[in-house]
UniProtKB/TrEMBL annotation, chains A, B:
Pathway field: tRNA modification; tRNA-queuosine biosynthesis
Keyword tRNA processing: yes
Family annotation (HAMAP family): Q_tRNA_Tgt
Assembly: Homodimer. Within each dimer, one monomer is responsible for RNA recognition and catalysis, while the other monomer binds to the replacement base PreQ1.
Source taxonomy: Bacteria, Pseudomonadati, Thermodesulfobacteriota, Thermodesulfobacteria, Thermodesulfobacteriales
Name the record gives this protein: Queuine tRNA-ribosyltransferase
GO biological process: tRNA queuosine(34) biosynthetic process
Residue stretches spanning the membrane: 323-344
GO CC annotation: cytosol
The record's free-text note on cofactor binding: Binds 1 zinc ion per subunit.
Organism: Thermosulfurimonas dismutans
Primary role: Catalyzes the base-exchange of a guanine (G) residue with the queuine precursor 7-aminomethyl-7-deazaguanine (PreQ1) at position 34 (anticodon wobble position) in tRNAs with GU(N) anticodons (tRNA-Asp, -Asn, -His and -Tyr). Catalysis occurs through a double-displacement mechanism. The nucleophile active site attacks the C1' of nucleotide 34 to detach the guanine base from the RNA, forming a covalent enzyme-RNA intermediate. The proton acceptor active site deprotonates the incoming PreQ1, allowing a nucleophilic attack on the C1' of the ribose to form the product.
């Protein structure tokens, strides 16, 4: 069994932990951030550059790849790794969240979820078993069970009902998984529970009882206030075991990540660094900035004076603004490299701080004096 | 004087020559192809990747950079090289061709050309002196005099008149240039003459008499038939001296380049490899292909089985088609890398063939058995 999770250090003041997740395609140090390769590429940036930034694991979307290019193409390619020329670890989601957020139509039944493709309107039925079969073809290293993402807001009765369905689907997933040859791939369960603390704890307990290789917190960042998100996260984590990796799906901002790490989360994915880059929004040690802003027209400093990324070492804000305003494609590459570097460097600093027993100071500093913390 | 041009080999059967152009920023082996960085970037690809393909010199557009970001920004950046992070040679055009092809309005007078920006409609007057002043701020290594691009078709009287104006502007350019400190940059003259052989020869003679560091053939590829283009090229070249570099502006296809090399041209620029890449049109040793084509859906071969570029070594047609259809930005990077490699490799093969005294066979083979020639 390759799926082995070791906790190397525990922070004494928070629940943060430094871990090592051993997968069949290499070791991942946690807490880790996973850049998002929605349709089989990290948008605008080739794989070597992504690995050059220190990326160990990326997330790809089952929903997108299932609809386009479709399973047959990826099967004939020998799986997603060779299709997209990515040698390191791939985690795939189950498609449940994209069915919730993207599909033109969604009808949840006991069997699975009926939906219409956002691309061509074609009709599909995604079942827990199919979600795993798709991921088997993708041959990802870490796979997720199909869950039901509960809308926000949602009343208690409905949330309870959908959470129960998530549990029945998780059970079916586990049964299906045990009959397949999984070649050392890992399967993670997902806890739901809506915005109700007791349902969250109960869901986590039920999912943990099924014994997955790791546990994810689903259904957060769906529009709820941030405090509520953190409360629900805390309730869920309280019922997760210490000795398995914990994954907070689709979250979030650097601040969200810091809070979640303090609560004991090990894994994150989010489109923010890449999507923001394409929109010209940049993460810096001094906060966010928009490269479109007129004052950058003749600002010959790098995006972030404290950053050592390729883009900051070689280009000025003035140049990047010029490229952005002119619609020059190179700018998406340059800004994506910077934002991914920012996120990956943040995670490296978090891990270092935990290892050195100063995570709480690091976190406090991040809020108080961003400019000093992320330098070097 | 850095601008020194050596002819190393002459083909015995054609007028092709292998040369070495020594510039203040490095040596360029000719015949050479210059990728186009219109607005200060090779679209979609960072500079190191462009140099990694063997690029020694790129072309940037004076017209575009003058309008956006404007001279002040580039002056404050310390010139175009540092603005765009390009260490090798930059050739800039004079802006004349873009005023002809892009501006909303163009009125040619003795003093210069009045035009309205295609970006914001602002009015400008580009004179021969201003064209050189702009290029001085850009601090390009090879600069072009302002000429008048003659439309096609154009009657003899008008062509003669506009060619005479080009000559007066060249004279003014030369006078202006001699009063400036040029720090080893080179200045090339441009011959016009419309589609009239005698005017072409006469224009070349007049321009050569002014003694520039190199000579360009302007006003071709403006809509005329290919045979006519080659005739006019031949007439112009017949009056150019042997011992200066000869530049055919804005041309062209691989076939055009082969013919022009055979006629003694040393330098080329063209948007074809980069623009075609963005439209999904790929150059291969077996001809052009469009990556959108349905049969590529499950074609797991590289773009060109005979190509050793990064893209062909790592990606299949099926993957590239998937990215293109999905609008994934990475595809512009990957296809641009391939097409530029194709052009640069073609030039390297041309130089090798001239050096080895077998250019004529190479050229004949290119037409007859493309698939064998460009391999390895």
């Amino acid at each position: 069994m390759w799926g082995y999770f070791h906790i190397l250090e525990r922070d004494t003041h928070t629940k943060a932990r430094l871990g090592r997740l051993v997968t069949r395609r290499g070791i991942i140090e946690t807490p880790v951030f996973m850049p998002v390769a929605t349709a089989g590429s990290i948008k605008a940036v080739p794989p070597e550059v992504v690995t050059g930034l220190g990326t160990r694991v990326i997330l790809a979307n089952t929903y997108h790849l299932y609809l386009r290019p479709g399973l047959e193409i990826i099967r004939q390619s020998g799986g997603l790794h060779s299709f997209m020329n990515w040698q390191r670890v791939i985690l795939t989601d189950s498609g449940g969240f994209q069915v919730y957020s993207l599909a033109q139509f969604r009808k949840i039944q006991e069997e699975g979820v009926h939906f219409k493709s956002h691309i061509d309107g074609s009709e599909h039925l995604l079942t827990p078993e199919l979600a795993l079969e798709i991921q088997e073809v993708l041959n990802s290293d870490i796979r997720m069970v199909l869950d039901v993402c509960i809308p926000y807001p949602c009343d208690r009765k409905k949330a309870k009902e959908l959470t129960a369905l998530t549990h029945r689907w998780a059970e079916r997933s586990k049964n299906f998984w045990e009959k397949r040859e999984n070649k050392g791939a890992l399967l993670f369960g997902i806890a739901q529970g809506g915005m109700f603390e007791d349902l969250r704890r109960e869901s986590a307990r039920v999912i943990v009882e099924m014994d997955f290789d790791g546990y994810a917190v689903g259904g957060l960042s769906v529009g709820e206030p941030r405090d509520l998100m953190l409360e629900m996260l805390s309730a869920t984590l309280s019922a997760f075991p210490e000795d398995r990796p914990r994954y907070l799906m689709g979250v979030g901002t650097p601040e969200d990540i810091l809070e979640a790490v303090a609560m004991g989360v090990d894994m994150f994915d989010c489109v923010l660094p890449t999507r923001n880059a394409r929109r010209g929004t940049i993460f810096t040690s001094e906060g966010k900035l928009s490269i479109r802003n007129a004052p950058f027209k003749n600002d010959f400093r790098p995006l972030d004076p404290n950053c050592q990324c390729y883009t900051c070492r070689n280009y000025t804000r003035a140049y990047l603004r010029h490229l952005f305003i002119s619609g020059e494609l190179l700018v998406y590459y340059l800004l994506t490299v910077h934002n991914l570097y920012f996120y990956l460097k943040l995670m490296a600093k978090i891990r270092k701080a935990i290892a050195e027993g100063r995570f709480m100071e690091f976190k406090a500093d991040f809020y108080q004096r961003k400019e000093e913390i992320l330098c070097g």
